[in-house]
Design a protein that fits this description.
The structure is a single chain. With 907 residues, the chain is of the alpha/beta class. It is 53% helix and 11% strand. It is built from 39 helices and 22 strands. The N and C termini lie far apart (90 Å).
Length: 907
């Protein structure tokens, strides 16, 4: 019955492909044809659909078609179903869509090839540069298919291939092969023979390893490219014509072996990436595809160790994609020779070649080994977790709800009411992604995303001081995993989006800017395009995490556990069930040592200087080891609890909510669960703080902080915090620091905080007046003050300060800035005061550093910028043109605005 049903569907699908007729593709029509009950036929149809043999078109009535027939006809049927016949027709293949990387690393290359193919009058010649195994020959073949599909070539158009390297030692024979020869042209030429140009007439000639062509053959070729005519070998006056498109490929660099006159005649020159340059996502898709192809060839199911896939992803194959494919073919062939034909074919790390197997021991980011099953009917996009998912539509639905709320805000809701309702919806959606069950195949992709998101968050924390809850990485990774299942989000209601975006920019600008920075890095790291909806959603999520972090919670609770997302999962469960953001998480690999965990704990304490109470929940009996590697400050409480479990997390969370003091909490946990604990009691609650700030950015303030810390002895018991200048000026020092604790503020501009002394950075550099000595004498002895003063003089020389904020040679930078200041004084006919000079030294050094790192400040108040005289801006730009030329950078208008502010508005 099944076989008959399958045969009829295949026959009728073929008819659909040829004539677009939709006969005998529904359950009723098939039941009549087979003289069977509709329910019976429907049952078998759905079974074959679930096995991947058929695809389903969800019209009324539902249609079934053969996936194999459609795929052979050029339809991209990687999903199990489509909604309409129109949707199915959209899957008719652009030939290049079968290329892995079409929307990623190969996107630019394919656009160039399409341009060359579609160009009028026989297209344009192009050359592919790339290492061996990068796919040059395969792409050339697809280019031929593409030209036929676009009716640039006829169905019968030839595709002729010549590997020039095979005949490099016999240039005369190579020339004969290309251009043909006349009788008697050389010894043995007993008759006239057509060459490959003639054979390729009306089609494409692909010359691989073209750098092995002799200069003479190159000259003949570029004459053919110019005139469309060529002369066979041995002919004197005879010329022939041919209508041939040319594709070249080489593993060598431009002009190393090719004549300049030859390369100039190839208008489109394309660079292909090596395998390692391609994204992890593309490498994973390549691996799955090659295994799936082997499954079809061998007609069996493959059971592949997840560790094999991880190792293949990270090994740097010298032969690139070609070597990866051959390695996978070898693994499958090696096992196939000895397998029981009725069983699965097992692929594990023991089969890997020795040079690749060495990577298994080095790989320390791999989760416990699980097997991935790939059968002949496995759909690659679903295997990767990239198929269409109902979860992706959750995002569109969420935005409909948020827009409805925003409309209510415009009519009746207050700003706080709107925000509270919107954040609740965003949090619930994020929760649904995190706690969704997924297959092991999908989990591997999620692990890859999670690693990259964590590295991005670490970068943002270090460079932008953006702190998101550690388990926030898992939330964002889960969102991105499902987001990748849609190529785009529906972008209706653009005018309402614009209003909502403006609301966030006006009311929560810091979160909005942080979301933009996050999106920029995510797009570059993950090869994903994120649009306005993602920008808005991630802004809401950052607002939510920021509000949760600001909630009054004296104790910071961190869960440390081994395994992928183990700690994150425990933290997410605790936070969700208790409906408060109490727990943060560090996920440790199984190979993490006690010293690594201890260092993580110590680093966490140092980063959270504002907090005085820390509780660490750890697993695997590592308490006694890690306590040796942490260095608590005298003023804080630290509690460490061993053998963390879900019940312990919930118990600790409830005690935190009930505001139980941390020592009692630790004692209670120990008594209840009979486990090992350790705590450190605070010895001294009095804090003494120096704050550093800089109007040029938090990065500079952080470098000033480090210079001051290097000048202080550890037993002075003085902490140094770096703070954002504008936040300090408008919001003050914040609730976590008492004004009485602050000794002084040091920076490039006075934020004017009441009753807190301010010391300009230029005074430290120049050694002017004794303000610093005076304020420090209140907290240090006379001998300590003198010692500190000597270190300040040493560490705060202009050279030292510039050296600390730039990767460039400090003396060179200082000399350049000296010339710039001299030009400013001449242009504006004024003497620049010392304090402004020092600020400009620091600011311009930071400016050069930012431009080199491609991290320029791109925001400046529009109203203020419009008030700056154009001639002054032009003058500043002319003075700085030397920097632009020397470092090959462009200074944006916003940076010019800040220089104007320092020169003319600095008080």
């Amino acid at each position: 019955m099944k076989e008959k049903l399958q045969a009829i569907i295949e026959e009728n699908t073929q008819e659909f492909v040829l004539s677009q007729k939709r006969e005998k593709l529904t359950a009723n029509e098939l039941a009549d044809k087979l003289n069977q009950k509709r329910n019976t036929v429907s049952k078998y149809l759905n079974q074959l659909w679930e096995q991947g043999v058929f695809i389903k078109i969800n019209t009324r009535p539902v249609l079934f078609m053969s996936r194999k027939i459609l795929k052979d006809a050029g339809y991209l049927v990687e999903t199990a179903s489509v909604e309409t016949i129109s949707d199915l027709k959209k899957l008719e293949e652009n030939t290049f869509m079968k290329l892995i990387g079409i929307n990623g690393s190969l996107q630019s290359a394919i656009q160039q090839i399409e341009t060359a193919t579609m160009y009028p009058d026989n297209g344009l010649a192009f050359i592919l540069f790339g290492p061996s195994g990068s796919g040059k020959s395969y792409i050339a073949k697809l280019s031929h298919q593409y030209a036929i599909s676009q009716r640039c070539l006829s169905e019968e158009a030839p595709f002729v291939v010549l590997n020039c390297a095979q005949y490099a030692d016999n240039p005369e024979l190579l020339s004969s092969l290309l251009f043909g020869h006349v009788k008697g042209a050389f010894t043995g030429a007993e008759e006239e023979k057509e060459g490959l140009l003639a054979a390729a007439d009306g089609g494409i000639l692909f010359l691989d390893e073209v750098h092995r062509l002799s200069p003479e053959s190159q000259e003949k070729l570029f004459i053919f490219m110019d005139k469309g005519t060529y002369t066979p070998l041995g002919a004197v006056k005879e010329t022939k014509k041919a209508n041939v498109r040319l594709i070249f490929a080489t593993t060598e660099k431009r002009e190393k072996f090719l004549l300049t006159t030859f390369i100039r005649r190839i208008p489109i020159q394309i660079e292909l990436p090596n395998l390692h340059q391609r994204s992890e996502r593309e490498r994973l898709e390549l691996i799955y595809t090659f295994f799936q192809e082997e499954s079809v060839i061998l007609d069996t199911t493959l059971s592949i160790s997840s560790r094999v896939i991880q190792v293949l992803m990270h090994y740097q194959f010298a032969g690139n994609v070609g070597e990866l494919k051959n390695t996978i073919k070898y693994l499958c062939a090696f096992q196939y020779r000895k397998m029981d034909r009725k069983r699965q074919l097992i692929i594990n790390t023991s089969l890997l070649p020795e040079e690749i197997y060495a990577l298994v021991e080095e790989e320390n980011t791999i989760s416990p080994v699980k097997n991935i099953l790939i059968s002949p009917n496995t759909l690659i996009r679903e295997l990767e977790g990239l198929g269409k998912s109902k979860d992706a539509s959750k995002i569109d639905k969420l935005f409909e709800e948020i827009l409805s709320l925003f409309q209510l805000y415009e009519e009746e809701l207050t700003s706080n009411e709107f925000l509270k309702k919107a954040l609740l919806k965003v949090d619930l959606m994020m929760d649904s992604f995190v706690f969704d069950k997924m297959s092991e195949n999908n989990r591997m992709l999620l692990q890859m995303i999670n690693r990259k998101v964590k590295s991005i968050m670490n970068f943002l924390e270090e460079d932008y001081h953006l702190t998101i809850f550690k388990n926030g990485a898992f939330y964002i990774s889960s969102y991105l995993f499902y987001r990748m299942q849609q190529n785009y989000l529906e972008n209706e209601h653009e005018s309402k989006f614009a209003k909502l975006k403006q609301f966030l920019m006006n009311s929560y600008n810091e979160a909005y800017e942080n979301a933009k920075n996050l999106i920029f890095l995510l797009e570059n790291k993950l090869d994903i395009f994120l649009n306005t909806k993602d920008e808005i959603l991630l802004t809401f999520y950052l607002i939510s995490t920021d509000l949760q972090q600001r909630e009054e919670q004296r104790s910071k609770v961190l869960i440390l556990a081994h395994g992928f997302a183990t700690a994150s999962s425990l933290a997410n469960v605790g936070n969700r069930l208790l409906n408060q953001q109490i727990f943060e998480a560090f996920d440790m690999s199984l190979e993490s040592t006690a010293i690594e965990i201890g260092q993580k704990v110590d680093e966490y304490i140092q980063k959270n200087r504002d907090n005085e109470e820390f509780i660490f929940l750890v697993d695997m009996g590592s308490l006694q080891e890690i306590e040796r590697y942490i260095h608590p400050r005298d003023s804080i409480f630290i509690g460490i609890v061993n053998n963390v479990t879900t019940s312990m997390v919930l118990s600790v969370g409830q005690m935190i909510i009930n505001k139980m003091d941390p020592k009692t909490l630790i004692d209670t946990i120990q008594a209840e669960q009979q486990i090992e604990t350790k705590f450190y009691l605070p010895k001294n609650k009095t804090r003494r703080i120096i704050i550093t700030t800089c109007m040029t950015g938090i990065g500079t303030a952080d470098q000033i902080r480090k210079l001051i810390e290097n000048s202080l002895e550890e037993d002075y018991n003085i902490e140094v915090f770096s703070m954002n200048y504008y936040s300090l000026k408008h919001n003050g020092i914040g609730p976590s620091i008492s004004p009485e604790e602050v000794i002084t503020i040091i920076g490039t501009d006075n934020p004017h905080i009441n009753n807190i002394p301010y010391i300009p950075l230029e005074k430290l550099i120049s050694g002017e007046d004794g303000t610093f000595t005076t304020v420090m004498s209140d907290v240090l002895t006379k001998e300590e003050t003198e010692q500190l003063n000597r270190k300040i003089i040493k560490n705060f020389s202009l050279d030292k300060v510039i050296e600390s904020i730039t990767i460039l040679e400090s003396r060179t930078v200082i000399n350049e800035i000296e010339k710039i200041l001299a030009q400013f004084e001449v242009l504006f006919n004024r003497k620049i005061e010392n304090k402004i000079q020092m600020t400009l030294y620091v600011h311009i050094a930071c400016l050069i550093e930012r431009l080199i790192r491609n991290q320029a400040i791109n925001e400046y108040p529009e109203e203020s910028f419009n008030e700056i005289p154009t001639n002054v801006l032009d003058a500043i730009r002319r003075v700085l043109s030397g920097i632009e030329n020397k470092y090959s950078v462009t200074i944006p208008p916003s940076e010019l605005g800040y220089l104007y502010s320092i020169l003319f508005e600095y008080q």
